[in-house]
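Here we describe the complex-level prediction in full. Unlike the single-chain runs in Section 2.1, the two entities below were treated as one system.
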Amino acid sequence: MAMNAGWLSNRHEIAKRNHLMISPVYTQCDAASLEAAVEVLLKQGARALLALLPEAEQDQLPALQSLCLRRGLELAGGIFPQLIRGGQLCAEGCWLLPRKQTTGAELLGLSADLSAETAACMVATRVETLLQGWDPAQGRPTLFLALDAVLPNMASMVDELYLRLADQVSYFGVNAGSETFQPIACLFDQHRTLGHGALALLLPSSAEPVIQHGYPLPDHVMSATATEGNRIFQIDWRPAFEVYQEQVRQQYGQNLNRDNFYQYGVHFPLGIALANNELLVRIPVALEDDGSVLCVGEVPENSLLFMLQAPALDQQSCVSDIAARLPEPGGDDETLLTFYCAGRRMHYGAEAGTELARLGSASGGRSMAGALTLGEIGSLRAGGYPMFHNAAIACALWKTT
Amino acid sequence: MNRDQLLAVLYDLALTIGHEVRLDALLTKVLQRLMFHTGSPAGLALHHPEGAATDYATLLKAIGDHALQQRAGERIAIPAGLLGKNIAPLDKAELLASLTGHDRYRFCLRLPVEQRYTILLLGLAPLSDNIPYDHVFPPVLANLSRAIQLCQDSERLAEAKEKEHRAMQAQLTRSQIFSRALLNAIPVAAFYKDTHGRYLGANPKFCELLAVKEEDIVGHTADELWPKDLAAFYQHSDRQILESRRPLNLEHAYRNPEGEERLALYAKNVFYDEKHEVAGLIGTFIDITERRDAEARLKQSLIQTINALSSAMAHRDMSTASHEKRVSDLAVAIGREMGLDDQRLEGLGLAAMVHDIGLIQIPSEILTRPRRLTVEEFDLLKLHSEAGYEILKDIDLPWPIARIILQHHENHDGSGYPNGVRGDDILLEAQIIHVADSMEAMLSHRPFRRHLEFNQAINELKRCRGVWYAPEPVDACLKLFLEKGYQLPDHVKKSLQAATL
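The structure predicted for the assembly as a whole is:
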């Protein structure tokens, strides 16, 4: 309670304290390149690194961990399908996002049988510890969460986390892991690498996270009549896959089968309608033997579902909406930390690069560092209720001045 | 929002409301779903029992505002104009700042719940204009009001039940402590078992006598702890009690830690659970080895005392002494013929040995005078029954010897002495001794007359059967003499002497 009172509300005052961040560095993952990059960062005063690695470079992680241990650097990060660099996707190298202070990052395993409530309670307890060490002069922190994409109950976890932490932090999160959705150890610190877990760290208030997906609300409505967590058993009282298959055929003339399910799922995701006419996107990623459909993120029972058709790039306002919520660029040393949903990339194909380039341009020409993700966490409105999303672009600022 | 969308939102909120039975959970879930649907970053549930025109309320629940969350349960000031009777979106930043203590929220949606509760959804921006407030919320809020009432009733009931449960638990704990203290205090070994024969506990005396620790026996059955034969006995008696639900007292040997065989007196009974079903059995046992030995010694000493009295009689009057021995022999034989047990036969024999002990007070000249006694002398002689009673009445014997002696001249028809009692009011042992005494007397010389012939004696006995003598002892006596060839002890010796001469 006292923390809110201690936060500085004056942006100028807060900005003066952001000198603790150092500009992100992209480097190749061979030992020599990593060594050289870390050497430069150490000279700039780096004491902690947030690292983003593409799935293809996961074998290089032990070298990075051992280098950080050797050089006394605190390390935290995740493995993602690909990286975003300069508005383009790349499957090699790694991003190192340095900070001058070791604020601590909390890495914890969450066993598969934990309820969302228990898992959130465990994460919240660690975040409370981080908050106790947070300098109120840095303003309200942004909680950066990286979760393993194979966790089955992320939307409920976000609800439970918000119940505990409330407005002590701004929420900004992503899902790490393999685009195949096969379990991999995708979260790490300097000591260990684990799957089925969560990584939490605090970023300065200047991160100002934004999330958008830009999907319009269509007319045709269905209802998820039987669901459990992230699995839809029935839509309109019929087997989920049967209905989904029928809808895709009727609306888009496409024939779905088990083999091409994910390929089409990204083009025809499901949307959960909220009373305020906003949409939560859920990309179906797998088909179970019983005809149920598995999504990334839960679908509450009796949710109002829409069969969405991902909009053409020119027919959606995602980039402009994000740009509108970002503050005016404050100098050259602002990097746009960008996480782009892997499903969205699959839908847009080569146009994903175009969308990223537009984002870079619309955000005031800020340089861009980030990764493809398997789920995103944030509020569609400034200061709104945080939720778990699919098919979204999540951005935050990495400010050094 | 079209009709289908509206119904789905209503259905979601209705389901959320219907699922919860605790007020806190209900308010948490409802606020979460309302925030989910409206995108509001914070939600409050207020209770103001005095209606909407009030300047304070109890903050029942806050979500999304950490500072307010810390004040949940507190009475908070409500700025005028914030509460009201109608559902309304409010653009009242200054009121919200006054309510929350900071200026983060600029807008809110007010959802009154039947004048006593209000839900406020707070936001930084106005809530969507597309939400049809008047369609979505009235049915939801009406349901919520009933759900709050149900939760409160349910919690009150649960609280009352919990209170009752705690009171019962406290009482149970007190009872358990008392029972345990009682078990620990009694100097008798005690144990209790469940219905499967597993020990549930034992007191210190039990552990001391059997040299075991309570924790070593709890959860185990007799066959896991004791020798096979002992375990079988215990399990058999346990089964008996559990089936019959009746207490059982029995004596049984056990072996102490030193390997000595000891005698114990067991008392076992079932105990019941709160549903009045048999929950197990409780048993106590006491080592009675010393008591048994002491009793045996006492009995022996009493027998010796009686024998000593008999010897004293012998020194005074040899014929009386030998009469008593013969009467004793015949009485025991009659008693055995009548099926008396050994313990009772032992008493009968002793009583017969001293049945004429009262003669000790009669001048020996009367006893040995070789003529018929005068009426006065006979009256004096008849006092020997009461005299014998007086001599023995204060000696604590395991048999009613003094009363047997008192009654051994009482007749079946009530014509005897000293009290003229009749029939079954006369002790069986006294009835038997009366027959044996008379039979022996008829078959023996007296200073004042010769003995009767055997047949005469038998006929006399038959004649007086049911008059002076009870029928059963007479029948047994006749059977002995006539069918089993019984002879009085020294009759054998006398017969041999006569044959020699």
